[in-house]
Specification:
Mean pLDDT: 92
Number of domains: 2
Strand order of the largest sheet: 9-8-7-6-10-11-12
CATH superfamily of the largest domain: Leucine Dehydrogenase, chain A, domain 1
Structural class: alpha/beta
Radius of gyration: 21 Å
CATH architecture of the largest domain: 3-Layer(aba) Sandwich
Shape: globular
Low-confidence stretches: 1-19
Distance between the termini: 36 Å
Order of helices and strands: HHEEEHEHEHHEHEEHEHEEHEHHHH
Number of helices: 14
Number of strands: 12
């Protein structure tokens, strides 16, 4: 998501022993930040098209509830650190909240609320019995030990315990959180309840109830959508060329899987920059290089490019799998791809969408292409509730069926109404939430 405005940083002062931990900055007027306003802009576009009246629209424009907490935790040197945390429920008309928890020094209420809205539409589009939620703690994990992060995580879980639960809100991993984070939250919740509650979180280790296929789920969904795009958009080529931005959990799976399926991956990047070979990259060999040196830099069989240059490379499919707002008004007119398959949350801004539409570049939106993570999270939640675990083959069979059905609905609506794939996806998702709200009525 976009960075919040520069403001003065809070400081907790010197830590014993001469070291210091600088508290991430506190923000004012967080709610009306750029991240949330961008999501409202997308919502307004689709609801204008749907011609929703004011009574139908009003409940959709803001979260149902949000909780801001101050998490106090003892650090390794004895100093007590204070960290701001959030949990937001955007809409729960379709079921309990579902969404990740992120750790980052620039986490804000605006960012968390924006992603909670995005999760609402992801779950709705995939026809999952979930509403949208999200959370986070404003901290820099690189400056904290694992023991400190555990204490902060557990205290945060205790502070938001009134909001979470298998029937209320089911967190999962997100930026800078992982299986271990989810295990700490599950244990903290279970200790408070007096018995093990595996379905309070998803994305936890397999040994304590995690689902097979969870770690590769988002990448698998991006690959599925890329393959469907080749078919639906008539990209007639034996080996479609692909550029992948990001080599994390999602981008790594996307690059490897498409390479194995005969796609020609010509460009890949990580946080340090990118590499490009117009004849195609040997993805397994590149990943071996990354494992040895820690980045794509210095890979001998490709030319070095910046992340900005990578996005503008000529290719059939561009898969932004890194962070938000990478495709914007400043570069959308320079892109030389035919299709964008969004593997990250909100990698394309609304202004960029307008430019891409005018240029005929199709965009498979994040609420479709990146929805496989929450879908397998749903599978994990179900498996925990019934205490019956599925094989990896069963997980992917069910996942492909749901993603395939959603793809068909989005492509069909876009074709019938002559609108972008994003508008079609959002309309389907918003319409389901509106219908659920109508049927449930307004209380009291």
């Amino acid at each position: 998501m976009t960075k919040p405005p520069n403001e003065e940083k809070e400081s907790s002062g010197k830590r014993p022993g001469g070291s210091s931990y600088e508290q991430p900055r506190c923000l004012e007027n967080e709610w009306e930040g750029a991240d949330f306003l961008m999501m409202q802009q997308r919502l307004d576009r689709v609801t204008d098209w749907m011609r929703l009246d004011a009574n139908e629209l009003a409940p959709l424009r803001h979260p149902k509830r949000s909780l801001m907490v101050v998490v106090h935790a003892r650090l390794d040197d004895g100093h007590v650190g204070s960290f701001t945390g959030y949990r937001v429920h955007y809409d729960i008309a379709l079921g309990p909240g579902k969404g990740g928890i992120r750790f980052h020094p620039e986490v804000s209420l605006s960012e968390v609320a924006a992603i909670a809205m995005l999760m609402t539409w992801k779950c709705s589009l995939m026809n999952l019995p979930f509403g949208g939620a999200h959370g986070g703690i404003r901290l820099d994990p690189a400056k904290l030990s694992e023991r400190e992060i555990e204490r902060i995580t557990r205290r945060y879980a205790s502070e938001i315990i009134e909001l979470i639960g298998p029937d209320e809100d089911i967190p999962g991993p997100d930026l800078n959180t992982n299986e271990q984070t989810m295990a700490w939250i599950m244990d903290t919740f279970s200790v408070n309840k007096g018995h093990t509650v595996p379905s309070v979180v998803t994305g936890k280790p397999k040994s304590i109830g995690g689902s097979l296929g969870a770690s590769e789920a988002v990448g698998h969904g991006v690959v599925f959508c890329a393959r469907r795009a080749v078919e639906k958009l008539s990209l007639i080529t034996d080996a479609p060329t692909v550029v992948v931005q990001g080599l994390g959990n999602v981008g790594s799976v996307v690059a490897s899987s498409l390479h194995e399926r005969g796609f020609n991956v010509v460009g890949i990047s990580d946080v340090t920059g990118g590499v490009y070979n117009e004849r195609g990259l040997n993805v397994p060999h590149l990943k071996d290089h990354v494992a040895r040196v820690g980045s794509v830099q210095g890979y001998p069989e490709a030319d070095a490019v910046t992340n900005a240059e990578l996005l503008e490379l000529q290719c059939d499919i561009l898969a932004p799998c890194a962070v938000a707002n990478q495709v914007n008004a400043g570069n959308a007119g320079k892109l030389r791809c035919k299709v964008i398959v969004e593997g990250a949350n909100a990698p394309t801004t609304p202004d960029a969408d307008d430019i891409l539409d005018d240029r005929g570049i199709a965009v498979l939106p994040d609420i479709l292409a990146a929805a496989s993570g929450v879908t397998v999270g749903y599978f994990e939640w179900v498996q925990g509730l019934i205490r019956l675990f599925w094989t990896e083959e069963e997980v992917y069979k069910r996942l492909d069926a749901l993603v395939g059905k959603a793809c068909e609905q989005v492509f069909d609506l876009a074709r019938r109404e002559k609108v972008s794939l994003r508008m079609a996806a959002w309309r389907i998702a918003v319409a389901r939430v509106v219908e659920a709200r109508r049927l449930r009525g307004l209380y009291p």
